[in-house]
Amino acid sequence: MRREKSEIQQLGRVGEGASSPKIAVIGPCASGKSTLVRSLCAAGYDARVCAQEHSEIPTLWEHGHPDMVIALAINLATLRHRRGDEWLEALYITQLRRLTRAVDAAFVVLNTTELDSGETLARAIDAIHQFRPDFVAVASEN
Predict the structure, then answer these.
(1) How many whole angstroms separate alpha carbon 47 and alpha carbon 57?
(2) Nearest to 11 by CA among 121, 132, 109
(3) Residue 13 pLDDT level (bands cut at 50, 70, 90)
(4) pLDDT of residue 134
(5) CA distances from 76 to 9, 42, 66, 68, 71 (A)
(6) What does the alpha-carbon distance between residue 94 and residue 98 come to, in Å, rounded to a whole number?
(7) Out of 9, 110, 117, 142, which residue is the most buried by the measure of CB atoms under 10 Å away?
(8) Residue 32 contacts by C-beta under 8 Å, 6 or more apart in sequence?
(9) CB 71 within 8 A of CB 26
């Protein structure tokens, strides 16, 4: 269920623009979800990791009522490079299947196979501002 704009604005203002859209970040293991969410939060965005890849509930990503979904993609070779050569292809394929509906709902899909964390962050922020042009982030003090 999507929130109405007025309901989103009541969630609280960040900076001088509208409130941050509530962002769910999904993707397979080792795709950079936690790194991206930490960076987005530090920059003033309301972002959360959704571990959809671990759940057989196809709409788990919807439970947090995100306004926007950012999907991260990664190929198996890069996942194995980041997590170890013993990573099973069958597990990777299972995770991709579990992510199907969330990826379909994503505003943007970023392939982190070829992006470093800084490039991923920059592209995510660009997508957020395409989604919500009136939002101005203010980095947290923490």
Answers:
(1) 21
(2) 132
(3) very low
(4) 82
(5) 40, 29, 28, 26, 16
(6) 6
(7) 110
(8) 72, 74, 112, 117, 120
(9) yes
